[in-house]
Amino acid sequence: MAEAIPQTTTAATGPSVRAALAAAIAISAFALSTATFELSMADWPSGFVLLVVVPLVALVFCGGALWSATLLLRIGNGGAKFALPFLIYALTLAVLVYAPLQQIALQQNFYWHRQNRERIVARIEAGELKPNVSHNENLIALGEREPNVSAGGNDIVVEQADEGTYVLFLTSRGLKHYFTGFLHVPPGGDPKKFFEFEDKPPSRLVRYDKDWYFVAN
Q1: Contact indicator for 27, 64 with CB cutoff of 8 Å
Q2: Which of 42, 116, 136, 189 could lock onto 147 through a cystine, CB 3.0 to 4.6 A?
Q3: CB–CB of 143/152 below 8 Å?
Q4: In this predicted model, what pLDDT tens digit does every residue of 13-47 receive, in sequence order?
Q5: Residue from 143, 152, 179 nearest 45 by CA
Q6: What per-residue confidence (pLDDT) applies to 145?
């Protein structure tokens, strides 16, 4: 007697939202990362980041959000799970609009590198480190042997003033000599007197601690 061949049955499964959910998570995570680290990425180079990456991320995010909105029409047949991608985009948009992402990244940068930067400032004040770039008397190229404490090749900008030494650690270098960074001023010094601001006062000036300021020109 021939052995009966067991028949397999396929369980009925409803429509899946996994692909849309995975895309929403990936796109939102990339958008948040770009918004958080846009400032520090600005010298990579600034033209590429500002003119290509940021608009592209915004376009992909908007496209994904619109796609997720169409999935809301399937809630009746597929269940509330089809609202999850839309909720992820909505929450991400709220974070992008209201959360101080760049400030959080700057605070992390400041505290993470503070000890190394203060050691370098002490070495400059002791005369151990001096400007070493032939075409710029205010520039010290720290090189790869030193901790990476400044954007754009680990170069720092110094000024020997009557009140002491000003030291600028860059967080970004942009087009047309635009820069941002943490400026260490000597005791009693004024960040507005730093030579880079002789022609124009800083567009951003935020005190982070005693003798430390975040500046932008």
Answers
A1: yes
A2: 116
A3: no
A4: 446 788 899 999 999 999 998 888 776 665 655 55
A5: 152
A6: 84
- State how far the Cα of 65 lies from the Cα of 59, in Å rounded to an integer: 10
pLDDT per residue over 51-98, tens digit each?
Answer: 778 888 999 999 999 999 999 988 888 888 899 999 999 999 999 999
Q: Which amino acid is at 92?
A: T
Phi (first) and psi of residue 79, to 5 degrees: 105, 175
Residues in the chain: 217
Q: Which of 153, 141, 31, 149 is nearest to 95 (CA)?
A: 31
Long-range Cβ pairs for the range 114-121 (8 Å, 24+): 114/212, 116/147, 116/149, 117/149, 117/167, 117/169, 117/182, 117/184, 118/184, 120/146, 120/149, 120/156, 120/167, 121/165, 121/167, 121/184
Which positions ≥6 away from 88 have C-beta within 8 Å?
Answer: 21, 24, 25, 28, 68
pTM, to two decimals:
0.75
Q: Which positions ≥6 away from 11 have C-beta within 8 Å? A: none
